[in-house]
């Protein structure tokens, strides 16, 4: 039994961002099109602040136009809806991302529904979810899109493989299952009410863990040689008790990584796995949305022979 290959999402994402930057330079030169992304952050959650700052920097590095709207935590739903409407009508903006979670007094579903589906670079609008489900061109949620890219890069053809997705959220589990189905996998969607979750996972050639529970998937849940994609990003107390007492934390996934390495054929780490791919795919979706707004194909440096990004 050999140790799993570690899938380097950080390096893959850096490479993808390089290709996106070339694609942006191409549409700027040939079509005077500058893809623009607007990120809206309500409230001051420190983790969200870091993440939003990274998005802004990487967007600009790719040659795109980037605006961040930071609104106070007590912003009314009406004010947020007015901002979304303004961005919907702003021709310099091709992608709109409203950072989740929103404060409890705001109805997230109402806000997501107000985003123009053509600018919905998170792929959370019901129109995009529906288009993905029936196989029409859609803006696809960034995290599952990034996972699919890592899987295809690791495995090649996914045809006929049994994929088990643990987690049924609208932002990861459900769209992940749709993408795997489209790639000709046999797909099982498991969740907290699944009877004998461990046994279900053991049948997976491809295991995608997206439950948000630190290290829930154990090593012996994994079939020998399976490819494991860990979507979880959980902050837990530092290993060292003194450091933990001082409030220091570390990031772990939904998979017990050290155990899993002994069983898996390949596995994504946390950090440095799926997380960086999520942001790279946000940039890709912004470029896609900008091109579609002008009826253009995606530039060739970010597409496969079939003209799709994956
Ligand atoms: N509308 C909306 N869309 C989102 O896509 C969205 C959101 N709201 N709310 C918050 C979550 C979280 N999220 C992350 C993306 C990348 C990393 C990431 O790059 N993580 C790095 C490092 C993390 C670190 O060191 O803190 C890694 O895993 O290697 C993390 C978290 C997107 N989200």
TrEMBL record:
Residues 7-122 form the Tetrahydrofolate dehydrogenase/cyclohydrolase catalytic domain. Pfam families: THF_DHG_CYH, THF_DHG_CYH_C. The keyword NADP applies. Keywords: Amino-acid biosynthesis, Histidine biosynthesis, Hydrolase, Methionine biosynthesis, Multifunctional enzyme, NADP, One-carbon metabolism, Oxidoreductase, Purine biosynthesis. Residues 141-292 form the Tetrahydrofolate dehydrogenase/cyclohydrolase NAD(P)-binding domain. InterPro entries: Aminoacid_DH-like_N_sf, NAD(P)-bd_dom_sf, THF_DH/CycHdrlase, THF_DH/CycHdrlase_cat_dom, THF_DH/CycHdrlase_CS, THF_DH/CycHdrlase_NAD-bd_dom. PROSITE patterns: THF_DHG_CYH_2 (PS00767). Its EC number is 1.5.1.5, 3.5.4.9. It catalyses: (6R)-5,10-methylene-5,6,7,8-tetrahydrofolate + NADP(+) = (6R)-5,10-methenyltetrahydrofolate + NADPH; (6R)-5,10-methenyltetrahydrofolate + H2O = (6R)-10-formyltetrahydrofolate + H(+). Pathway: One-carbon metabolism; tetrahydrofolate interconversion. NADP(+) binds at residues 167-169, 233. SUPFAM superfamilies: Aminoacid dehydrogenase-like, N-terminal domain, NAD(P)-binding Rossmann-fold domains. GO terms for cellular component: cytosol. The keyword NADP applies. GO terms for biological process: L-histidine biosynthetic process; methionine biosynthetic process; purine nucleotide biosynthetic process; tetrahydrofolate interconversion. GO terms for molecular function: methenyltetrahydrofolate cyclohydrolase activity; methylenetetrahydrofolate dehydrogenase (NADP+) activity. Catalyzes the oxidation of 5,10-methylenetetrahydrofolate to 5,10-methenyltetrahydrofolate and then the hydrolysis of 5,10-methenyltetrahydrofolate to 10-formyltetrahydrofolate. HAMAP family: THF_DHG_CYH. Homodimer. Belongs to the tetrahydrofolate dehydrogenase/cyclohydrolase family. PANTHER family: C-1-TETRAHYDROFOLATE SYNTHASE, CYTOPLASMIC, C-1-TETRAHYDROFOLATE SYNTHASE, CYTOPLASMIC-RELATED. This is Bifunctional protein FolD. It comes from Aerophototrophica crusticola. The gene is folD.
């Amino acid at each position: 039994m050999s140790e799993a290959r570690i899938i380097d999402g950080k390096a893959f994402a850096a490479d993808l961002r390089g290709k996106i930057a070339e694609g942006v330079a191409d549409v700027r030169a040939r079509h005077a099109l500058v893809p623009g992304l607007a990120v809206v952050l309500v409230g001051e959650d420190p983790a969200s602040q870091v993440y939003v700052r990274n998005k802004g920097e990487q967007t600009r590095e790719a040659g795109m136009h980037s605006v961040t709207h930071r609104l106070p935590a007590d912003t009314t739903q009406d004010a947020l809806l007015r901002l979304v409407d303004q961005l919907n009508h702003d021709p310099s903006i091709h992608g709109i991302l409203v950072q989740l979670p929103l404060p409890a007094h705001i109805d997230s579903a109402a806000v997501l529904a107000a985003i123009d589906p053509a600018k919905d670079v998170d792929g959370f609008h019901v129109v995009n979810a529906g288009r993905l489900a029936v196989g029409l061109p859609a803006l696809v949620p960034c995290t599952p899109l990034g996972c699919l890219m890592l899987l295809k890069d690791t495995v090649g053809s996914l045809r006929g493989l049994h994929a088990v997705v643990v987690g049924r959220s609208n932002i990861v589990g459900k769209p992940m299952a749709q993408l795997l189905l489209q790639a000709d996998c046999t797909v099982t969607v498991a969740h907290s009410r699944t009877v004998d979750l461990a046994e279900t996972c053991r049948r997976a050639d491809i295991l995608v863990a997206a439950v948000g529970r630190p290290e829930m998937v154990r090593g012996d849940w994994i079939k020998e040689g399976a490819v494991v994609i860990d979507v979880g990003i959980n902050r837990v107390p530092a290993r060292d008790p003194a450091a933990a007492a001082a409030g220091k934390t570390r990031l772990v996934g939904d998979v017990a990584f050290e155990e899993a390495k002994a069983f898996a054929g390949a596995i994504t780490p946390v950090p440095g796995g799926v997380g960086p791919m999520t942001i790279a795919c946000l940039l890709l979706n912004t470029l896609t949305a900008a091109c579609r707004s002008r009826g253009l194909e995606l530039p060739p440096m970010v597409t496969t022979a079939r003209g799709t990004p994956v």
